[in-house]
Amino acid sequence: MAFLLLTPVDVIIDSREDSKHPDFKKILNMRGLRTAVQPLPAGDFLLLAPPDKQPILVERKSVDDLANSIRDNRIWDQSKLLREAAEKDGYQPLIVVEGWIGSLEKYRGWRIQSVLRILDTLMLDFGIPVLNTPNPEATIEWIVAKSKSLGETKDKKILRMRVEKKPMELNERILYVVEGLAGPTLARRLLAYFKTIRNIANASISDLLKVEGIGEKRAQEIYAVLNTPWREM
């Protein structure tokens, strides 16, 4: 599916984000930005730019959203989709996390170093910068300031938004499956060591521990995912 923006705008708001937070569009308009609501292939906001600058595709998460996506391992699929959507059209991907990250340690008992390791994986391995803001109001203030810094509305590109998905090649599909088990870095190490998904599935915990970076807890998690019978919800 494709659509064409007929007039220049500063910010495109994803239609799902707009349905959940319609006040965002109202505030951005009041602050002098021109907005459009359209379905985005990934992310919540697209900050447009003149031809000599790079548009920014923004995924917005509260700290609780971040925690939930880490807990059920969706963070890697979501980030990969954001990165691929951005690369496809020449955007800069960005994840904005709203709230105090330290609350995950204080109120959920998570080790802060584990949370920071996930964030540094997003930045260093996925190439997606992470911006931490204190609250949604601050995020909106940043969008206003950043959008204005990208130039005048009239100079911003009228973009043809492409949302069709290119089928993954077999090698990409293999990596995609294993990334769901261990994230991008460990997935490559697992495949380099075991060669096939079947071999990973047949590996014992002691076999998994032979891979660099796989500790006892992670080995047990991977083994459990691959060997626990599925129950219909």
UniProtKB/TrEMBL annotation:
Protein's UniProt name: ERCC4 domain-containing protein
GO cellular component: Holliday junction resolvase complex
GO molecular function, a single term: 3'-flap endonuclease activity
Any one Gene Ontology BP term: double-strand break repair via break-induced replication
Entry keyword set: Hydrolase
Record domain ERCC4: where: 10-101
PANTHER family, per database record: CLASS II CROSSOVER JUNCTION ENDONUCLEASE MUS81, CROSSOVER JUNCTION ENDONUCLEASE MUS81
